[in-house]
Amino acid sequence: MGGDVLAVHLPPGEGPDRWYNVVADLPEPLPPPRDLEPGEPRLKMLPEVLLKECLRQENSDQRWIPIPPEIRDLYLQAGRPRPLFRARRLEKRLGTPARLYYKSEFYSPTGSHKVNTALAQAWYAAEAGFERLTTETGAGQWGTALSYAASLVGLKITVYWVRAVHDWKTDRRNFMRLFGAEVHASPSPETKTGRDLLKTDARHPGSLGIAVSEGLEDARGDEKAVYCLGSVLNHVLLHQTVIGLETKMQFEQIGEYPDVVISCLGGGSNFGGFALPFMPDAFHGKGPRFIAAQSEAAPNLQGTYEYDFADHAELTPQLKMYTLGHRKTMKPIRGDGLRYHAAAPILSLLRHLGYIDTVAYPADEKHVFERARTFVQSEGFLPAPESAYSVACAIDEALRCKETGERKTIAFNVSGHGFMDMEGYRSVLGL
Ligand SMILES: Cc1ncc(COP(=O)(O)O)c(C=O)c1O
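A: This is the predicted complex of the input protein with pyridoxal-5'-phosphate.
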């Protein structure tokens, strides 16, 4: 099984032509968003701030949702389908009997999986006649992906970027600007949410929850603007299922099937996109084990399963999620895209039902970046700091197999590259 294959390719144009909506197959209904009672009704503002098509997908229980041909063209342009690699050199270096396979989302024009939903959302926004997008970003990967997508479909864009990362990723900031984006460190003086926080601390490091509030507030004040979210919501995970659908086809091509599926998880778009297409097998008792790799700085899947806000300023309805609390202070890390207080409702339900395990790595990130160094030296690809968590988790699992002698097949997703994150590697590894 698997033979000597080193890379599994799907021909251009032969990737999935529909997204997979796991909501149709969930063992229990997904708890719907709700309003906090008493309080300002927030559910009714959703159609005002979210794209109509995305909201339709958000509430859909249709198992397969066709990908419009124009979005399939954009996926082709962005280099889909992407190869699945067998990590033979890494296996050899570790001396493990496990077989390791990784999906290469780092082959992306802007550096990560985030383009999969950015292209879809930007295209829907242009179709709906909007002129400007607003958004949040943590690692900067989502902000760049949406700036790229906006540029391709001819829209303007404003990005609110968590200050703790904005300040050290100067080249990524310039990359966004090159696409025509207006970029603000968040909290920013542009919004009431930002101004209030800056009064308490002029150098406030920010958080994804705060940046979401700023993006929402901005879009609500301009009828030509629409807000796009880079993670958490059902439709975002839906668009990302192209990753797992391709991976499944690639495993089928070589007659393999994973025993373990691993990826990093911040809000959950990458983990969901990679893992959800394998989930129905798990519902039928035949599926792999799923492990989400997180940071001890934000181990949201180890929080409590309850209704909470998706943003700091409480502009969103409440979602049923594993959460640390929407105003929780979390120390910035180099893999800051993982520093979000809650996990996507779909993944939270699946964790609640026992389908997803989680591991949280120490916030000094030494273990994670050392594992990434091992990966770079054997496979040659530089993971984004967030993706280094997937790599670390896969290597740890492979080393466990070395102890037990198990020949497990381990699949992991390298959600992005780290070419613009070298300062993070330097500061943690002392290069
Ligand atoms: C490369 C990369 N992977 C993973 C993540 C985590 O986000 P999510 O859980 O939505 O995939 C981020 C977030 O910025 C990222 O940049």
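The mean pLDDT is 96. Residues 112, 138-139, 141-142, 231, 264-271, 337-338, 384, 386-387, 415-416 surround pyridoxal-5'-phosphate (CB under 6 Å).
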